[in-house]
Design goal:
The complex is a heterotrimer of chains A (229), B (292) and C (328). Chain A has a single domain (3-227), classed as P-loop containing nucleotide triphosphate hydrolases (Rossmann fold, 3-Layer(aba) Sandwich), CATH 3.40.50. Helix content of chain A is 36%, strand content 26%. Chain A has helices at residues 43-50, 73-76, 96-102, 110-120, 122-125, 137-150, 167-184, 195-201, 219-227; strands spanning 3-12, 20-28, 32-37, 58-63, 66-67, 81-84, 155-159, 187-191, 204-209, 212-218. In chain A, α4 runs antiparallel to α6 (137-150), α7 packs parallel to α8 and α8 packs antiparallel against α9. Chain B has helices at 2-32, 39-57, 60-82, 92-113, 139-161, 163-173, 175-180, 185-207, 220-233, 238-259, 264-278; strands spanning 128-131, 134-138. A two-stranded antiparallel sheet of chain B has the order 1-2. With 328 residues, chain C is an all-alpha fold. Chain C has one domain (2-234). Classes of the chains: A alpha/beta (229), B mainly alpha (292), C mainly alpha (328). At the A-B interface, α2 and α3 of A face α6 and α7 of B.
Chain lengths: 229, 292, 328
Amino acid sequence: MTEILQVRGLVAGYGAAPVLRDIDLTVPTGSIVTVLGANGAGKTTLLRTLSGLLRPTAGQILLDGKDLRRVKVERLVRLGMAHVPEGRGVVAELTVDENLRLGGLWRNDVNAAVAEVYELFEPLAQRKRNAGHLLSGGERQMLAIGRALVARPRLLLLDEPSLGLAPKITAQIMALLQKLRTQTGLTVLLVEQNARSALSVADSGVVMSLGRIATATTAQELRNAYLGS
Amino acid sequence: MDRFVFLTFDGLSNGAVYAAFALALVLIWRAARVVNFAQGAMAVAAAYAAYSVTQATGSYWIGFAAALGTGLMIGALVERAVMRFVGHANPLNEVIVALGLVLFIQAVLGMLYGNEFLPSHTPFSRNAIEVGGVPLLSRYDLFVFGAVAALVLLLALLFTKTSTGLRMRAAAFAPEVSRLLGVNVGGMLTLGWALASAVGALAAMLVIPTELGLNPHAMDLVFVTSFTAAVIGGLDSPPGAVTGGMAVGLILSYVSGYLGSSVTPIAVLALLLIVLLVRPGGLFSATVARQA
Amino acid sequence: MTLQKHLIFTALGGIFLFAVTQQLEPFRNYQLATMAAYLCATAGLTILTGLNGQISLGHGALMAVGAYTMAFAQNGIGNLYLSLLLAMLATTAVGAIIGVAAARLRGPYLAGLTLAVALAIPAFTVTFDGLFNSEQGLPVSFTPPETLPIETWQALTAGGSALLVMFLLANVVSSRFGRAMRAVRDNEVAARLAGIHVARTQVLSFVISAAPAGLGGALLAFLAQNVSPGAFSLTLSLYLLLAIVIGGLGNLAGAVWGAFLLVALPDLTNSLTEGITASPELARKLDGNLALAIFGLTLIVVMLVAPGGLQSLVQRISHRIRKGRNHV
């Protein structure tokens, strides 16, 4: 098995004191890896650093072996990495359709990709012309993930998709991730506070604490250790 | 009654120009949350470029194209070389830098061309066509309406029908998310400034021949008038800017026609004051407070 | 304590002013007087923009109010000090009106409104030409004392007025009200929670800032011996703004730097352009414009690289020198 993403000795932060200290992380191609941890452990900062929104002060980020440190944020999605940010990032002023197209404007097959997303998320198809701010929380999350899929990424970074959603909808989203993984070979790096739902689909996971990786092991062991089942 | 009809058409013609210039202000406001106080000076610079080109080639239309091209370039340059580096800690910073640009551009134009009024020609006659004995509007007025209508249509198409327009809107509303989605946000900002500056240049080309002529300060009052129009429209609404521009054009035409043209700046001040104090959100905006 | 300090500074300034005016040649005294007139306005604007965070492009217009009041009072009553006082009072009243509107506006909206005020000034003089005599303006008559050269007298009057303004404003800055102004500038919500009446503070700031601007305008009229709308164009307002930005916002010492620059730079560029004798056409185009271009460029550069202005640069350098000494 090859690794789509490798992180070595990553240090990053805002200002003088680093938030992330010496992060090592390996994401095998085609797997679902979850990043768990309490509020403020550095999970979101990790994703922001991976996408280049925050530049690391030390360490390496390799996507398919290619060093990302000098790559512009807006280039990354073309390299196959899509990031659904904290709070979903639905552009409230744009319609559902516009939000989706935005996900892959540089692609020749953007219309086909958008159509596929409508098949995947039927509720969105009924709200094409509605502005983003009219959507419910669950619809917004569908839109955010769908928009990321329009880019046809190989690696999807997801920041807390379950936040603020009913358990039933969270379960649907987790099932969808699993389906995408089996059908298209999509790799997912899933940041979650909700360990139970994340571990229900993940193959492996890491637990972050105070900006470091405290534990890195299989999902099964994490389930045993944290959920006691 | 004839006079009222004439003033109405004259006001609509001026209003079309104010609408275009207000649109330029709205474009930058939406893209960067900046009121570009240098827009008048930038537009005048483009009009001077047109003057030089027309002098050299003898063609109004080559000069006209040069004005639009210069407008694009000045806008891009101002954003890339200056505005991009202004600290956002204080919202006054951008205003002050833009005012510095006003001083600088007007002084450079004065050094190159002198501070006198230069004659400015129109491609069509400004004599009003009479319909049933009543002078209505001139061929030039028709040209102004046509140019502004084409502009409004093109901008509407650009923003609603093209992917570049979608990118520009997304970059303005949600810069960070747009970058994650592969949008070159910095490039869109530059494009927005360039576009707005070209629109401003178009407005300057249309309005300067109808006034005293070309001068480094030729757009000072047009700026304030169009700012008033944009504020009436709500500052972030393109349809509001167009409606506001037409309304301000009409009001000022009646004021200047019935009370004397020297009263116009006072009328602009009064209008702006009334709008800001009575309808702080503008007529087309949901914004409640005028805090920027 | 601060009051004593300010009194001592003002007294020293007065002695210095008196000594200097006795030494300078008439033209330099006239320049000193002009600088003092500008200083009144820049100090007022510093209070408004630097301390209270409100922008005004209308201070040139406020100076015009002061100048025209000066003309009316001088030509009607003829007592110089009374005229200066009346000019200040009239401008205070106008400042209060603009201030009430301004307190409801922020940033670009306030800038746009005050810009409209600046552009309306010539229109007022033309529309009410029976009163203001249109573009020609009004003469300002006065009888100079017989014991002093007229320029020395002008420099003493203007300099003395500027000192008084600086003394009063310095006390405002260090007062309770000065702290309220800064609190409103930094965070309106926090200021409101701390029990500060935000709108009242903003209106009062505008009034406090308008009065010295009116005095400065009156002094300019007194120096030029006439008043016309051309002297109070939008460019003057931009000059004032740029002077306080370059000098250093939020610092009365910065206002001094700014006023100095407003007089010194045009003088410098004038002597530069006079050097160009090759082409009178070119010299005519450069005249005035060169100074404006330098001003504009400086304003942009200062905002981009040293938003604290000249005064912060001076403070940084003197701080470093002092630190250097301590190390030795």
